[in-house]
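Worked Example 4.2. Consider the chain below.
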Amino acid sequence: MSTIIFKQKPRIIGWYSVAGKKESQGPLRETFSRIVTDEYFGEKTHEMAERKFFVTAIQGAIQSAGVQPDIVFAGDLLNQIVSSSFAMRDIGLPYVGIYGACSTMALSIINAATYVDAGLVQTTVAAAGSHFATAERQYRTPLEFGNQRPPTSQWTVTGAGATVLSSAKTSSIGVTCATIGRVVDYGIKDVNNMGACMAPAAADTLERHFKNTNTQPGDYDAIFSGDLGQIGEEALRDLMKEKGYPLGENYYDCGKLIYYGEQKVDMGGSGCGCSAVTLNGFILDKFQQGEYHKVLFMATGALLSPTTCFQGESIPGIANAVVIEEVTE
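Applying the procedure from the previous section yields the following structure tokens:
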């Protein structure tokens, strides 16, 4: 079965988010652990800046938890996940690189929770991040090119987030189950319309999750998708209605939450950092404040590369989901 039930309910004992300037101008600004207004973060290149975002988030989460982790699961959008791997060169802890495109935050948590639940380690870190300038350079065109952005575009979030999971029962926030995504492809080839590419995969994961866990959308305080943006969110609502699981007012998309409309981000936010900073800020803060008790967090990803796009391939999508809830035992 594609849904994993974590019997030990690994606890979330620390988290940290670091976000960029544009993100700090949005509605979630008060929920970020740290804001960096310099897009270079004091470094020579945007790629080096992205690594520094990772180092800052992971070290911040570890300090928040007050416990040294056994292993780190992390990933990003760049080729050979160099942002997370080069960041771990500086941190020095055992590391497993994860790639799930923009679904990487949830995928990292699934792997981290599985290790803890199986008793292989006591404490892990799950992390993900992205940078607007590095993503544009790799997947579309460098910013120096100055091309016009089509209205279906989304704005890659500059930021990183990290979550510490532990077998210690020192927190009431636990990861209780996860549904692993399948690769779904509706034949879309537009690299500037990620929401449409990812929505079918999100619908597939949600439907399987509800069936496997015998739950309905209304059983959760909130359901979050990672970065579908306006187009993708509307598509997901339509698809879920067709499947018999209509999404209500408790469904939100991180890509729509993170920016104001007047920030000129077209359809909203995207990137690994979009769901990572929203989870490790807004969502987990809501748990700490007692406003959330059970949340379905589903990060979404478009599985493309410049090579496959240049060869005329379509863009498959994937979505990975975890349930985070208040636990007492």
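Residues 173-326 form a domain with the Peroxisomal Thiolase; Chain A, domain 1 fold (CATH 3.40.47.40). The first helix runs from residue 21 to 24. Compare this with Example 4.1 before moving on.
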